[in-house]
Amino acid sequence: MSDPAGGADPEEPSYDAAEQATSVEEIAEEIAEEEGRRYPSTLGGLIYLGVLAAGAVGIVLAGRDDWRLGVSVLAGALMAAAAARLVLPARDAGMLAVRHRLVDVALLGGVGGLLLFLARTIPNQPGL
């Protein structure tokens, strides 16, 4: 609240317009620098993009061509992600690190192994 006599309230902070403009400009520059980077910052991020690409190829193969091959490619991508998560330290794992290391490895490797097992053991069904 302002003083009835027209003075400023001593409890309210005073802002210098030039100081505020400088800080806004600095923030805008920092955001522009961060947005300019278009590459993963860790090895795990690069591996994650490779796993994502291999998974997409596997799904396309499963839908258009040989489903066993597509599921096997997808399983291989998940198992590669599990292996990378196992050997990379947490600071380098990037987007592969979602949970605790052993949980990530167990889930990725388990799902990949089950998909590979199913792709190899389901019998052919003639006529379908």
Automatic annotation (TrEMBL):
Membrane-spanning ranges: 46-63, 69-90, 102-122
Keyword Membrane in record: yes
Keyword check for Cell inner membrane: no
Alphabetic keyword roster: Membrane, Transmembrane, Transmembrane helix
Annotated stretches, region: Disordered: 1-22
Protein's recorded name: DUF3017 domain-containing protein
Native source species: Nocardioides marinisabuli
